[in-house]
Design brief:
The structure holds 2 protein chains of 2 kinds. By secondary structure, chain A is an alpha+beta fold. Chain A is built from 5 helices and 5 strands. In chain A, a hairpin with a 2-residue loop joins strand 3 and strand 4. Chain A is globular. Chain B is α+β, with helices and mostly antiparallel strands. Chain B has 3 domains: 46 residues, Uridine Diphospho-n-acetylenolpyruvylglucosamine Reductase, domain 2 (2-Layer Sandwich), CATH 3.30.43; 113 residues, Uridine Diphospho-n-acetylenolpyruvylglucosamine Reductase, domain 3 (2-Layer Sandwich); 107 residues, 2-Layer Sandwich (Enolase-like, domain 1), CATH 3.30.390.
């Protein structure tokens, strides 16, 4: 068996240390070692986006990254988006605009959308669709997902927002 | 899905990586991992050791050196997509990077990794040929620079030898009258090119002075469409010229065919996308 490798990373603000087999994928480290099962494994081939997390502030597909590659990094998962008991605006947008049905793709969708809004505070619908090209939803289609991201973008810009019931 | 076991080595310099490759000929370089890790999961690649070069500082960054842009091999697709320097001096590469995979893939995948992997359906190789790029390869016996024309040698095969590393990609700074474009039919799920054509033209007085056209996706590796380049040089790139020049550019017998697109259909697509790429390049000149 290949030698285990010591790794250290900050996950959702908490420092984690461990020894992993080099072949352990980041998504398995998060889910199985740290118990953070909000990050999902969908296709396992870097196409569906269910496993998107942020590594040093950038969206990545955690099924296509070994945990050792994230050694020394700061990782944020869906569990780390809530701040002071408040949902992240993208999470709130998915709730308000009914941006999900079964919810399997949602953590990855939200992490990918949050990455977009970090770089572009006022995206067009077309830019949102381009940014979510690597995230597949098999339930509802993407219309309400785009509305959810637009809701979050408006809220993050400090503009008034209205929910689905309005 | 777990890969087979391997030993993991993280290096900080190109020299460290070269000496590890020499000690272990079965080792593979790990850059962004977005071609290698999927291949390892499928057991298409089964290295006993990985040498992680993602933190080698000398492999990073985009800088101008005279009339040449020097792009470190570990530069990610996102960094290329967002580079103000490239947008100004070589706008084709940010345009190509923008359509590779998706944002999360672009945040990890690297230019050097993609070129060294030499997937026959990758997007960059066509633009490397059209731009007249060259690749700096370093090994224990020093370094050498290989033209894009001589770099892609076969399916998943390049001029990089055993124990060598691709360290830099050199592309010429865009000059006056030059237009560049990349047109591709993407596979609807994987976004890989079924056929992709990159064109670079230098126009003067409405006439094409120089053309370089690279094709990817259709054959075993990316290649120049030299006959087409000769056919359009000295002519205006209007619709009549292009439609006459872009006929039966490649023989189906030389192309790949699969259940997504037959070789005959790919040959047809090469004609169509070559015409579109040249027209778009002329429009930007």
């Amino acid at each position: 068996m290949a030698d285990k490798v010591r790794i250290r990373m900050t996950v959702n603000g908490l420092e984690q240390r461990g020894e992993v087999e080099p072949r352990m994928l980041l998504v398995h480290y998060l889910r199985e070692t740290l118990g953070l099962t909000g990050t999902h494994i969908g296709c396992d081939t870097s196409q569906c986006g269910a496993c998107v997390v942020h590594v040093d502030g950038q969206a990545v597909k955690s099924c296509t990254l070994f945990a050792v590659q994230a050694d020394g990094s700061s990782v944020t998962t869906i569990e780390g988006l809530v701040k002071d008991g408040q949902y992240h605006p993208v999470q709130e947008g998915f709730w308000e605009k009914h941006g999900l049905q079964c919810g399997f793709c949602t953590p990855g969708m939200i992490m990918a959308a949050a990455d977009l809004l970090n770089k572009n505070s006022n995206p067009t619908d077309a830019e949102i669709r381009h940014a979510l090209e690597g995230n597949l939803c098999r339930c509802t289609g993407y219309q309400n997902i785009v509305l959810a991201v637009q809701y979050a973008a408006a809220k993050m810009r400090g503009e008034p927002v209205t929910g689905a019931a309005d | 899905m777990y890969t087979n076991q391997f030993s993991y080595h993280r290096v900080n310099t190109v020299q460290e990586a070269i000496s590890l490759l020499q000690k272990n000929p079965d080792a593979r370089l790990l850059a962004g991992g977005h071609s290698l890790i999927p291949a390892m999961k499928l057991r298409l690649s089964d290295p006993s050791a990985l040498v992680d070069i993602s933190r080698v500082a000398e492999l990073k960054g985009i800088r101008q050196r005279g009339n040449t842009l020097v792009i470190g091999a570990m530069t990610t697709h996102s960094e290329i997509e967002d580079s103000a320097l490239l947008k100004q001096l070589c706008p084709l590469l940010p345009e190509v990077a923008h359509i590779i995979g998706d944002p999360a893939v672009r945040n990890r995948g690297t230019l050097g990794g993609s070129l060294a992997h030499a997937d026959p359906a990758a997007d960059y190789p066509a633009s490397m040929l059209a731009l007249g790029a060259s690749m700096k390869i370093v090994g224990s016996n020093g370094d050498r620079v290989v033209d894009a024309d001589n770099f892609f040698t076969g399916m998943f095969a390049t001029a990089i030898g055993s124990g060598e590393i691709l360290t830099e990609i050199h592309v010429p700074v865009k000059t006056a009258g030059v237009g560049m474009a990349y047109e591709t039919m993407m596979h609807p799920a994987s976004r890989y090119a079924i056929v992709g054509v990159a064109a670079m033209v230098r126009m003067s007085g409405g006439v094409c002075q120089e053309a370089r056209v690279g094709m990817t996706g259709a054959g075993h590796h990316a290649m120049r469409l030299s006959g087409l380049e000769a056919a359009v040089t000295g002519k205006p790139l209007d619709a009549a010229t292009l439609s006459a020049a872009c006929k039966s550019l490649v023989r189906p017998a030389d192309l790949l065919g699969d259940h997504f697109a037959s070789a005959d259909y790919r040959a047809h697509l090469v004609d169509v996308y070559a015409q579109r790429a040249l027209a778009a390049a002329a429009g930007k000149a």
